[in-house]
Design a protein that fits this description.
globular; single chain; nine-stranded antiparallel sheet; Arc Repressor Mutant, subunit A; alpha+beta; Multidrug-efflux Transporter 1 Regulator Bmrr, Chain A; 322 residues
């Protein structure tokens, strides 16, 4: 079953790549099945078994997610967007768009409120499946450490003070109505103007979403025993005035000094644990050093975690003069 999950992940990755490249031939079921070397019937059956949804439905909803961002962010004709994403007419696109998001493309372009997009499926992940790391392969890059000033901004997010780590966070969120991973990430994916979105003014991580730890004003202890709460959200400009979905919350984050602990690209399956150990060691050494700075844990301060194995993993932590 694990091998089939890996195969389905291959299809999921190919779908996003093909949609982005406008490669309709590569999106055909025949082409996707040939990529795996199986029949169309076997491929669709296994995709549904692994993902919980039919391949054709997943493909349609991912194309709509890509199309919505084009409607939201540009002025390209709606018919051209429809044809680019496999719809035969403006009418067919409008029906599908309204059925998925409750509004028409033209109405959404005028008033782009948050909607739940179909985010990319993670079909295979060694850590989620309890398989752990392949060996303990040491990384080569080491940790780059530097100070930055982060302007005032807003943080749209969900939070959980009982969780301990990314996957535990989403397992606990799944028990809260409207705060499961698909809903929250789908909503955040639709929000315009995220500071960390690809191509944005402060491009850092794909999709503009980050894990974070907020120093809790109420002093509640997280799973590690510290007065901070684990969060997932998106940074937005300080003057952002968009609609806040009822299942998310918005906080203002003051401008401040931060220290970044950054590791370069790494092999997620082979080097995850060693990369984490290296970053933890670097943060511990900073905390213990007499360098004129100290981590700032006053209420309202936020630690951001950017995770993209193909590019980096980095913690951005607020500091103050010691």
């Amino acid at each position: 079953m694990h091998e089939w999950r890996r195969q389905v992940q291959t299809i999921v990755d190919a779908i996003d790549e093909s949609i982005a490249n406008r490669d309709d031939e590569a999106l055909a079921l025949r082409a996707l099945a040939e990529r795996l070397g199986y029949s169309e019937f076997h491929t669709t059956r296994k995709f549904k078994e692994v993902s919980g949804m039919p391949l054709r439905d997943y493909l349609r909803t991912r194309r709509l997610a890509f199309a919505l961002k084009e409607v939201r962010d540009g002025d390209k004709a709606l018919l051209d967007i429809a044809l680019d994403h496999g719809f035969s007419s403006h009418e067919a696109f409008t029906r599908a768009f309204k059925g998925a998001f409750g509004t028409t493309p033209s109405a959404y372009r005028k008033d782009p409120r948050p909607v739940v997009l179909r985010t990319k499926i993670t079909a295979f992940d060694r850590y989620v499946l309890g398989m752990g790391e392949i060996g303990m392969e040491k990384t080569d890059d080491g940790i780059e450490q530097y100070l930055i000033t982060v302007p005032a901004h807003r943080f749209l997010h969900v939070r959980n003070c009982e969780s301990n780590g990314y996957w535990d966070f989403w397992q606990k969120q799944a028990a809260i109505p409207g705060q499961d991973r698909d809903t929250v990430c789908g909503l955040l994916d639709s929000v315009k103007g995220k500071l960390d979105d690809e191509g944005g003014p402060e491009a850092n991580a794909g999709g503009g979403q980050v894990m974070a730890y907020v120093s809790d004003p109420e002093g509640r202890l997280c799973a590690w025993g510290f007065p901070r709460v684990e969060c997932h959200g998106a940074r937005l400009p300080a003057d952002w005035e968009g609609e806040v979905p009822p299942n998310l919350q918005l906080m203002d984050v003051a401008a401040g000094e931060y220290v970044v602990f950054e590791h370069g690209p790494f092999d997620y399956e082979r080097q995850m644990r060693t990369m984490e150990d290296e970053i933890e060691a670097a943060m511990g050494a900073f905390e213990a050093a007499d360098n004129g700075w100290a981590f700032d844990t006053t209420p309202g301060k936020v630690i951001y975690l950017y995770f993209d194995p193909a590019r980096f993993c980095k913690y951005v932590r607020p500091v103050r003069k010691a």
